[in-house]
UniProtKB/TrEMBL annotation:
Segments passing through the bilayer: none
Entry-linked PANTHER family: AB HYDROLASE-1 DOMAIN-CONTAINING PROTEIN, METHYLESTERASE FAMILY MEMBER
Entry keyword set: Hydrolase
MF annotations from Gene Ontology: methyl indole-3-acetate esterase activity; methyl jasmonate esterase activity
Record protein name field: Alpha/beta fold hydrolase
UniProt domain AB hydrolase-1: residue ranges: 4-228
Amino acid sequence: MSEFLLIHGSCHGAWCWHRVIPALEALGHRARAIDLPGHGRDQTPARAVTLDSYANAICGALTGPTIVVGHSMAGYPITAAAEADPTHIAALVYLCAYAPVSGMTLGDMRRAGPRQPLAPAIRVDKGQGVFSFDPAQVDSLFYHDCDRAAQVLASLCLTPQPIVPQETALTLTPRSQSLPRHYIRCTDDRAIPPEYQEAMAQSVPPAHRSILPASHSPFFACPEALADRLHEIAESGSAQ
């Protein structure tokens, strides 16, 4: 049995993992999800949210050896948490996520991508220091292979994304890079190009790379398949 901590991506919250947690529990694991500061039910003002506050929230949720899974933008927070204190992190799993490049911000990485599928949907509110996605485009970008119940849940729960954490560079050291790290690429992703995910996955060992034939939201589209893949990681011996 392994302990999992599931970390959401931009504009999402702990709510997006509600199908994966019971699927992992059915496989004999313990699984939890948290709202990062300024997301979900967390009321931290957007102007107070930083990459460090994300990292602190993750570290504060760890009580023992834990496999930490980061979706999308959460590749940065989970890595920042490992840089801050890797004591309780058994492994890092990047789920169609940004695998940080030392010295670059997440924004830098997104802009350096081979394509910009998100750009037409991003709506920036400079006054509040946040961005959001055009509601008319979110289903086609994030949830095109998900059922209607998942799409409705997202429409009710998505929140603006603080900009500062995504424009903060991260310096990588052995504190994070010496941990077991895995990358799960989603081959039908319309938000982060699959070919870009493939390039980012080169940062982990070949045996630690895998794919799901899913959109950017495998936690909705194929929660059991995602749980099975996380189970395989836990059982592989590379997350001990």
